[in-house]
Design brief:
With 167 residues, this protein is mainly alpha-helical. The protein is 72% helix and 2% strand. It contains 5 helices and 2 strands, in the order αββαααα. The protein has a two-stranded antiparallel sheet. A hairpin with a 2-residue loop joins β1 and β2. The two termini are 36 Å apart. 35% of the residues are buried.
């Protein structure tokens, strides 16, 4: 191969590929945080507007508590994602970046799926109607659990990062 066609360092292609997966995991985590935040924002708005028995549904603990859980997921997911991105930007050791990226990706992608389920529940029947964005959020969130390594792969990487000899 001509030298001017070489991308990166010769003999380091596989390592470069693995590093791009870590970058992708951070990006997936950021997408998942956006999905969670969108669910939160829409649910807060809807719970303030939709009334049953003469009061907004957001006054009901069952609804308010679910929406509160969305706020926790968004806050925790954002912190994990920022931590992974900060390690990457600071040039931290690859093992530290891999661990932080896997943790952020695992937590946020699974939380995004949960957030879409909660949002659909808050919206009730409207949660299934295409006129409402929450109807498509589940599809958007589910692929985040799969891309750049499934949740099971992330758990394996995290366990290995902890020193466990998992296969």
């Amino acid at each position: 191969m001509p030298q001017d066609h070489l991308l990166g360092e010769q003999g380091r292609g596989y390592a470069q590929f693995l590093a791009t997966l870590d970058d992708g995991r951070i990006a997936i985590a950021a997408l998942a945080v956006g999905c969670i935040q969108a669910c939160l924002d829409l649910c807060v708005q809807y719970a303030g507007e939709r009334t049953t028995f003469g009061v907004p549904i957001g006054t009901k603990q069952g609804v308010a508590f679910q929406i509160s859980d969305l706020a926790v997921m968004a806050t925790a997911g954002r912190a994990l994602t920022y931590q992974a991105a900060a390690l990457k930007d600071a040039g931290a050791p690859p093992a530290a970046i891999k661990q932080a990226a896997s943790i952020a990706k695992l937590y946020t992608s699974e939380s995004a799926v949960t957030a879409t389920r909660i949002a659909t529940q808050v919206f009730g029947g409207y949660g299934f109607m295409e006129e409402y964005p929450v109807a498509r959020f589940y599809r958007d969130a589910k692929i985040l659990e799969i891309g750049e390594g499934t949740s099971e792969v992330q758990r394996m990487l995290i366990a290995r990062g902890l020193g466990l000899p998992v296969e």
